[in-house]
Specification:
CATH class: Mainly Beta
Radius of gyration: 16 Å
Strand content: 25-35%
CATH architecture: Sandwich
CATH topology: Jelly Rolls
Shape: globular
Order of helices and strands: EHEEEEEEEEEEEEEH
Number of strands: 14
Distance between the termini: 30 Å
Number of helices: 2
Structural class: mainly beta
CATH superfamily: Jelly Rolls
Helix content: 10-25%
Number of domains: 1
Length: about 200
């Protein structure tokens, strides 16, 4: 169960954001896996926030998120300053996978089209979400992929992103390789940490 405590203005903003995903990680994907020049990228991230890929609440906004996915204990995130958020629309091609990454604050994600499988690095369990479903990433290391034969579209709002800071942070290459080995995944291993 996810509980959000916020003032009325934040409730309206959260409804507008549609409860989005914890993954601005697609910005770091550099390889198209042998795709042709006119083929879409494996993961296309379109920022919906402005200016500078951030939206700022004009009110003093704090956020508490309580999240309990199946098979996990409850995670509680208290964000004393949730005044900046970054919102993205991700189009994930069939079979494409995000690199292992985390975020500076919680992420609300809504699957607008298709299917997505979300994997936390500490338990390797595959949690499927489909069109019309939403979930929260409390900020733990994770990856996600499109298991279907059709593109998946996810809207994600990342909270607590300082102005000028990246909305996600890649796992370092050694950690990413270890997570791929432990979880039996083939997530891309980025060269840098931030994107």
């Amino acid at each position: 169960m996810t509980t959000i405590t916020q003032p009325r203005a934040l409730r309206r903003s959260l409804l507008f954001a549609a409860g989005a995903l914890a993954v601005a990680a697609a910005l770091a994907l550099a390889s198209t896996g042998g795709a042709q020049a006119d083929d879409p990228p494996p993961i296309d991230a379109v920022p919906l926030s402005t200016p500078g890929q951030h939206n700022e609440f004009t009110d003093d906004v704090a956020l508490q998120v309580r999240d309990k996915p199946d098979g996990r204990s409850t995670e509680v995130v208290n964000l004393r300053d949730a005044s900046n958020m970054a919102v993205f629309e991700f189009t994930i091609q069939p079979g494409a996978m995000f690199p292992w990454h985390t975020h500076p604050g919680p992420v609300f994600a809504a699957v607008a089209e298709g299917d997505l499988v979300f994997i936390y690095g500490d338990d390797c369990a595959e949690r499927p979400y489909t069109h019309g479903e939403a979930f929260v990433d409390p900020g733990l290391v994770h990856t996600a992929y499109n298991p279907s034969d059709e593109p998946t579209v996810v809207i994600a709002a990342v909270f607590g992103v300082d102005s000028g800071a990246p909305p996600s942070i890649n796992a370092d290459p050694e950690e990413a390789e270890a997570l791929n080995d432990a979880c039996g995944t083939e997530a891309p291993v980025p060269e840098g940490h931030q994107h």
